[in-house]
Amino acid sequence: MFGKIFCNIIKSKRVLNERELEYKNPEEAAGGLVRREIIPASFRGSVRIRQVDAGSCNACEWECIALANPIYDVQRFGVDFVASPRHADIILVTGPVSWSMARALEKSWLAAAEPKIVIACGDCAADGGVFKGSYAVAGGADKIVPVAYKISGCPPSPADIIKGIRGALALLCGTHKGPEPK
Amino acid sequence: MTPRNIENYHRVQPGEFAARCAGIFHAGGKLRMMFAADERETDGRMNIYAVFSSIADHGSFDIITTAVEDEGGFRYQSITPRVPAAHWYEREMACMFGIVPEGHPDLRPLVLHGMYPEGVFPLRRDITAADVRSKVDLAKDDAYPYKTVEGEGVFEIPVGPVHAGIIEPGHFRFSAVGESIYFLDPRLFYTHKGVEKLFEQVGFERGIQIAERISGTSSFCHSTAYCLAVENMRGVEIPIRAKAVRTFLVELERLYNHIGDIGNLCAGTGFAAGYAGGAELKERLMALNHRLTGSRYLRGVNRLGGVSRDVLEDVESISAELSVVTDEFKAVMKFIMSSISHMERLEGPGFLSREAAVKLGATGIAARASGVNDDLRTAHPNLFYDRIIFEVHTRNRGDVLARMMLRADEAACSLAMLRSILRKAKPQKKELMAADAQQDARPADIGGGRQALGWVEGARGSIFYFVKAAADGKSPLRVKVRSASFCNWPLLPLAVLNDIVPDFPLINKSFNLSYSGCDM
Ligand code: SF4
To answer: CATH number of the domain at A44-175, please?
Structure first.
């Protein structure tokens, strides 16, 4: 009996989310996560990301930009995008790594201070995506820099990216092993 | 109206090519694209094509083509001195095919950076992807000869390829005197992904996925132009309902881009509240995209012969959402335009003259905001556009403000079009969504070696595809992609002249060009 009521409540809430709050409710947008769940204690509540476009189609970037818009608003969680790799804890790579961006990506990685990790964001950065087999791409960020975590999707939605960042941080702090199954 | 009558191919002698092109261009025929195709395996020739909008016959194209002779290297007389709009196309051909345009004023390598091997031309048919890959040398220094300005008080500001914000990579070399930009030499093609070769590698069907990923926010327009080209080539007429769906989504893509761009301009002037308004409304449209197609970037709908499903079935809920968007859009525009400090910053910078826009072949917002009345939706109507009555908006100031206001005009126009398509195209029961494009794919039918154009007026401007089948008809011999940004990037150095360096991001945002779409 209790179980049933509980289910109903969840259900009605869902409908509401999809119909109206889909793009409005930040907690839901972030997959219902709250700050302490995203950022491990050892980071003292804040991580900084340097996003590097290594030949993406730009849809992955737009989803990262959306993270900072008033709807997703990741700054609430202590996550922010920074201009200099020197300020970054995470290098978030998008794109299949075009040859022309390979060195710039490597330099960005080298410029970041330890401890640091690389997240490959999107199918392209994970393994080249649809551009696999082209003469002009390395075919994945891990061909150039050590990738700690991959976020799949083409592009991954803003919520997927937040979850990915959480997964990567957890991995870094040793609180869980490897990417979550999708 | 079959596509075959619209595309008129004229083969001329190499010696006549430049004069013929110049004749059309100076009579007002717009150069839509220019490209080479290595057809040595079929007709023994390396051909170049220049596609113009016909002057005499409205709505059709004149395609001038000639063979380039191999006299110890492919060379022909450059048309750029007489047709300035051809300048990047000719540089591109030099990089990708090794066809040298003699007399071209700027022969620095355009597409391939220093790590690529010299003398290996990726788009030649006898070069494989593996040939190029195996010779790429990342350790090689990239010694690109930037144009420099010398003189007292002139200093250089190099920016990029990795920029401060979350944007695409490109290098900008400013020569500044004080705060004023004296000269700008941009270097692009950092995101070059070898897309045109990839089309040849993967075959017609999978080409759609690649077209969708040439430029993220133009996914739908690119895949539509690609599908139209292949369908035209195969002589496939797509079902009327599929046309309605495609037209609807093309306009929806324009709408979310324009609204997003108007919001982004606020980020360029530091007007956070205006930016937030634009971003929120754009997000609303992205959610609508997702609801309709399962993709926030409208991917996975197009297929050869039509669309994969009817995304407009739920007319009522879509209409309701569109009216909310219409109201909110008005409110956002009102709010943004009420900020005097914001509006003042937009007035003046980034001026592009009408003359420069015409000569350099500007397209889309960049052209229309400088008073050039050019829109493929009326110039070469396809899809549903011959059934929708609308007016092409233009503005004359040619500055950042003109480009913003034009976007607002066009967004309102798109909203009206979306509503009209919904009204007109009430779904019938079980309507056909896609013609069987496969049926026509038998080599006997398509007679291998057929060719056709596909085009769409996207949010950034005109998008063109040229597709030619190989002899067996199964795979493409050549797919040429011409995105709007490829035409408009060369305008930027002109538009920023004498403006101040801090205004550059704002001017850049007002054009909102795609790097990936240009670099491919
Ligand atoms: S993963 Fe998809 S969306 Fe991201 S850059 Fe690659 S093609 Fe674009």
So the answer is: 3.40.50.12280
